[in-house]
Amino acid sequence: MGGKIGHRQFSREFKRNALQLVEKGVSVGKVARDLDIHPNLIHRWRRDYLAEGESAFVGSGKVKPEEAEVKRLQRELEEVKEERDILKKALGVFSKRSW
Fold first, then answer.
1. Which of 40, 43, 38, 35 is CA-nearest to residue 14?
2. C-alpha 78 chain-centroid distance
3. How far apart are the two ends of the chain, measured CA to CA in Å?
4. What is the DSSP string of 17-84?
5. The dihedral of CA 66, 71, 75, 78: what is its sign?
6. Which stretch of DSSP H or E encloses residue 96?
7. Model-level pTM?
């Protein structure tokens, strides 16, 4: 009947500092033990950093610039579709009128 176990969250600086220690030659295992984290976390952070560079570790609630642009474009597409549908209906209404 234990409570929900939450995941620990680490700041961008914490992750970067851990990666800097590894870059300086300290083993992943030692860094992980010293920081009381699983070594796989450091490997994942390193992989993310190598793949995404400075945009890695954006933090909770924040989105990457690419993701923000995709969301903006999706919203814009929905608006355009709605406008198109309204115009189609209006065209149907006006074309049925007898002048």
1. 35
2. 22
3. 76
4. HHHHHHHTT--HHHHHHHHTS-HHHHHHHHHHHHHHGGGS---TT---HHHHHHHHHHHHHHHHHHHH
5. positive
6. helix 65-96
7. 0.56
Tell me 9's DSSP state: -
**Could you give the 3-state DSSP secondary structure of residue 89?**
helix
pLDDT score, position 41: 94
Token digits for 35? Answer: 């920081």
Q: What is the DSSP letter of 10?
A: -
**Does position 75 have pLDDT exceeding 80, yes or no?**
yes
**21 contacts: CB under 8 Å, gap ≥ 6:** 31
